[in-house]
Amino acid sequence: MHKILIVIARLNKGGTAAYISELVKQLPKKKYEVLIATGYVQGSEIEDESTESLPIVRIKHLGRKISPINDLRAHLELKKV
Description:
Strand order of the largest sheet: 1-2-3
Structural class: alpha/beta
Largest sheet: 3 strands, parallel
Number of helices: 2
Shape: flat
Strand content: 15-25%
Oligomer: single chain
Order of helices and strands: EHEEH
Radius of gyration: 13 Å
Number of strands: 3
């Protein structure tokens, strides 16, 4: 079985989250094990409800905003995954 790690800053409500949700549901049929590494939605954004049924690991420092310090921290967190 092959493994795939999908990394995305956040899974806010919308097209990208819907696309990833469908992709993650279909890949196991093709013998792929999938894990999504994602941060948290921020401010007034709403997290897509599909996240409740997806294999997710939260990366505390992964986010939309560019931040050299948090980006390095997120990189280190991702290496642990």
